[in-house]
Amino acid sequence: QVKLVESGGGLVHPGGSLRLSCAASGFTFSVSYMSWYRQAPGKEREFIARISSAGGSTNYADSVKGRFTISRDNAKNTLYLQMNSLKPEDTAVYYCYTSPSYWGQGTQVTVSS
Fold it and tell me: Which stretch of DSSP H or E encloses residue 81?
């Protein structure tokens, strides 16, 4: 079955960086578009970034454009999210996603001094 497992979250100071990973299994990762979403306390889940199957096309939410970079390694069936210049408002649970409706369990990112 499809399995998505996020890792790499944690506590970081404002201005710091983190890299999230999402290990995928149970489907053909190399032909699948992949996305990152996040959900802050009391808010709806929101789109962060998407990457095409071969990695040649990416899209970002305006709130993270220029600070976050989505990438993938199809040889390792792994999706990444490099997060730089983190802000307190980036605090959320981060999820990876693939269609039609597969989600990981999420990884907590907390940005606080």
Answer: strand 78-83
Nearest CA among 36, 32, 42, 30 for reference residue 6: 36
Q: Categorize the per-residue pLDDT at 55 as very low, low, confident or very high, splitting at 50, 70 and 90.
A: very high
Rounded to an integer, what distance in angstroms lies between the CA atom of residue 83 and that of residue 43? 20
Q: How far is CA 66 from CA 62, 70, 83, in A?
A: 9, 11, 10
CB contact at 8 A, 33 and 49 = no
Distances (CA, A) of 58 to 10, 36, 42, 108: 25, 11, 28, 23
Residue pLDDT, tens place only, 2-39 = 999 999 999 999 999 999 999 999 999 999 999 999 99
Contact by Cβ (8 Å): 21, 6:
yes
